[in-house]
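yo

u said u wanted the structure for the complex thing, so here. seqs first:
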Amino acid sequence: MAMSRPTNRRPENHKIDWHLPAISCSASAHNMSRELFVLTYGALVAQLCKDHEADEDVNKYLDQMGYNIGVRLVEDFLARSSIKKCRSYNETADIIAKIAFKMYLGITPSVICSKESGNEFSLVLDKNPLVDFVEDLPVGRSSLCYSNLLCGVIRGALEMINLPADVQFIQDRLKGGDVTEIGITFLRKTDDKKHRRNK
Amino acid sequence: MAMSRPTNRRPENHKIDWHLPAISCSASAHNMSRELFVLTYGALVAQLCKDHEADEDVNKYLDQMGYNIGVRLVEDFLARSSIKKCRSYNETADIIAKIAFKMYLGITPSVICSKESGNEFSLVLDKNPLVDFVEDLPVGRSSLCYSNLLCGVIRGALEMINLPADVQFIQDRLKGGDVTEIGITFLRKTDDKKHRRNK
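structre next:
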């Protein structure tokens, strides 16, 4: 399927530098309420569960689909948020939570830096809108990461700006967790020269 | 998969009467920008195309998924729009275009009453956000109704408020149409007493 970039909001040099968040989200013209999205996402997960017996396969497909979406979405994000560079992983994690999540899902997770190494973060969602209409995981699907698309989206978007990362659910309310928590581990060490040049 | 109704916005008596659109959309807390939805929808269509060879089958599944979504979404819509009753098919079509499309997709199609019978309407979309990132139909998929989920959503929502209707694409820009046009044919005649009682 030929998918095009929206030509009217192509950012310049988005792969090179992003620095100092000049937070001016021109989002209003693009807004919708998220219930249609949440229900459509439910239909996608149900379809994948129909197609694949193993939860691990469904999780993998959701992550891969998310990755492909993130690769495209990052361009839209950089164009609309006017963000140029990030100085640190800390700032990057903050921008994901406070600008990207707000823009695309209408929520703002809190950010926790989980290790002294400074490259591991958690996004903690008090409420996960993707499961608004979901009471339980489907029967026999106890290993399903229902919202795994989100991890893929974050991973794909970060990779496009030269910040490879592992992204996965650490806690999930659907699995009895107190909150929903997404872990992001940036794979380059912060003193990596190449990373410094590109981040 | 157990899907729940969001308990905090359950409308009362929504199946009985809806009359006089008191248009107060309390949508802000639910807002997101639609790019993530549009790309996720693209992933869903791609998945269905992978699963089913015949375009007609993909169209049917999209319509059916949409129907299931519409059946659930109508409750959210009635609760948030505060709409109680519609006096006529004309008013119903107007509400779909001016309130529901605005709320869930951020666009407002124009409405054309296409026949004197008063039960056939067209929603004309100058711009269809669902195809924002789509340049062409996939190769060999010339009969695909890419956005067919929308027809199902409208059909499902209308059926839940006792207004059965045929809903389908009449024109589609992806198929060379000048605009994108969704046709809605209400199946009960306007002088049908049962319909009058219930609409």
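Chain B has one domain: 33-198. Chain B is about 40% helix and 15% strand.
cya
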